[in-house]
Amino acid sequence: MSVDVAAPPKIHITESAQAHFNYLISKEDMPGMGLRIFLTNPGLPSADVSISFCPPGEHRAGDIPILFSGFTLYIDRASVSYLEDAEIDYKSDKMGGQLAITAPNLRGTKPESEGSLADKVNYILHAEVNPNLASHGGMVTLVEITPNNEVVLRFGGGCHGCGMVDVTLKQGIEKTLMSQLSEITAVIDVTDHTSGENPYYTPD
């Protein structure tokens, strides 16, 4: 499975945390074992960070790899902006120790009512839409807001070329956006789906 070539976020993993991860990976006794970091409810007060083992070849389409000493960390594509300037540390204590994850952008900031339509759309995409698409290895980004308040989107990852993308757009994303932002007149997909390399669903 391919990985995204987009620039990874700036994540600092301390030496103690890297040593801890390498220790855990060594106990799995599987060459090439990596780690995957992903978020739950990013941009919302309930946002949380999760890190799991990622066996060779089992990262998701669109994941962004970062190489560390002894392992590769795969970043969920939809989580990138929220993990910018994050730090992962491991602090030893009498009970053994624990990870400490600091992510200043994790919970984001909901745009004010007078904010731009683009900011509001981006917030909903990051906070509500992309976390759901990430379960299929997909994501969607805002291309532009037209003068007529049409929202132009582009799909990526597992949604790029997916045979169910029209359903995702009309029954999922469009309803979500237009139910919260009444000024939107249409939601348009400009993705070239013929070039998708790892679609989540391919019709027979």
Briefly say what this structure is.
With 204 residues, the protein is of the alpha/beta class.
Question: Can you offer a commentary on this structure?
Answer:
The protein folds into 2 domains: about 10-100, HesB-like domain (Hypothetical Protein Aq_1857, Chain: A), CATH 2.60.300; about 115-195, Fe-S cluster assembly (FSCA) (GMP Synthetase, Chain A, domain 3, 2-Layer Sandwich), CATH 3.30.300. Helices cover about 25% and strands about 30% of the residues. The protein is built from 3 helices and 10 strands, in the order βαββββββαββαβ. The strands form 3 sheets. The protein has a 4-stranded mixed sheet with strand order 3-2-5-4. A 3-stranded mixed sheet has the order 1-6-7. Strands 8-9-10 form a 3-stranded mixed sheet, covered by helices on one side. Helix 2 (about 115-135) crosses helix 3. The model is unreliable at about 1-5 (pLDDT under 50).
